[in-house]
Amino acid sequence: MMGYIEENYGVELGIEHEYLFSFLHEIGHYMTLLDVSISTVLSRAEMDFARLNPKSPTYEEDYRQLTLERMADLWATSFIEENPEVLNINLINV
Q1: pLDDT tens-place string over residues 37-60
Q2: How many other β-carbons are positioned within 10 Å of the β-carbon of residue 9?
Q3: Which of 3, 13, 75, 94 is the most exposed place for a label (fewest CB within 10 A)?
Q4: What does the pLDDT read at residue 88?
Q5: Alpha-carbon distance 75 to 80, whole Å?
Q6: Cα 77 from Cα 86, distance rounded (Å)
Q7: List of residues 6+ apart from 5 with CB closer than 8 A
Q8: The whole model's pTM is what?
Q9: What one-character DSSP code corresponds to residue 1?
Q10: How far apart are CA 31 and CA 93, in angstroms?
């Protein structure tokens, strides 16, 4: 996943940052959907998931391109760019 993040968002992260990025990604879901109605979120998710094919060899990348996932990735990468010191947090050994 870290290669995908670097390729698509230009943020270079090592494997040691995977848990941290996942954590920030989940916070990104919350932060990007604060002012969005649940009906809008569910409608968007339904449309996005309808076009996914779990048997596709590009399923994981296709999933990451879904609107809600992309928004969370963008929030997480922006947070890291604005707060690079967060990369010094070692969540693997916590």
Answers
A1: 999 999 999 999 999 999 999 999
A2: 17
A3: 94
A4: 85
A5: 9
A6: 11
A7: 11, 13, 21, 73, 77
A8: 0.85
A9: -
A10: 26
User: From CA 28, how far away is CA 73, in angstroms rounded?
Assistant: 7
AA identity, residue 35: D
Cα within 13 Å of Cα(33), Cβ side: 21
Buried b (16+ CB within 10 A) or exposed e, 51-65: eeeeeeeeeeebebe
| Contact predicate 66/48, CB 8 Å | yes
Secondary structure of residue 66 in the 3-state scheme = coil
Quote the CA–CA distance of 60 and 79 in Å, as a whole number.
23
**Token pair for 63:** 């999933």
Report the candidate in 33, 28, 35, 37 with the shortest Cα–Cα distance to residue 76: 28
- Please list, in sequence order, all residues whose beta carbon lies within 8 angstroms of the beta carbon of residue 90, skipping any fewer than 6 positions away: 16
Rg (CA), the chain: 14
